[in-house]
Amino acid sequence: MAAAVSPPGTTTVIDHGDVEKWLRPRPVAALYGVGPATAGKLRAYGLHTIGDLADTPLPTLVRLLGAATGRNLHAHAHGHDPRSVQAQPTAKSPGADRTFDHDILDPAAHRQALLSLAEEVAAGLRDGRQAAGGLALTVRYADRTSSTRTRTLPEATAHTRPIATTTHDLYDQLGLQRARVRAISLRAHDLRPAHEAAQQLTLDPADDRALALEAVTDRARARYGPGTLRPATLTNRPARR
User: Which residues pair with 131 in a beta bridge?
Assistant: First the structure.
């Protein structure tokens, strides 16, 4: 954050005791972990600066943002980062690409590719024992132009279902109508160790079924290789890697 506001060729030094003082007047959107949607929600509740966020009781933030996000942002607003320091360099952000053999107009084929991408990225995260805090979707068109949409996830995850849901939401944001699509790619970012990712408990039986099926799929993939088990909608996938 200090580097982002420092003029080129200068260095900003923040002493340990001045961290909170330096943070307080800055916009809440500048805080690590606050995406556009979260920033808009905070502003709707009158929390415009990091100082406003720091002064909000933790139980209130948990009610507004969920347990994991509320606790993390409360800590960040006070100048604390609960993540452990990694001795090893962070692994490259997992990603997947699908290039069609020809320009595709059919949204159903696009969505089939989106599910395939989400499956591959999520599996890569789990294999690397990582969780993603955000996703970036890029769609390349027949004229070689492209569109990219990014989103910060409500909670860092490596599970296929929330990653697939967010991937489809990013696609819907593009509002494509009769678009001739040549390729689609998905990238995970804001990585962290899997054990640091909290999962919000739900009462939806479908979530439990999805997690159970995911565990079976992972075991099959580890033993027999990728693609051993996959959704029926991907059995005739029109895109190639």
Answer: 192
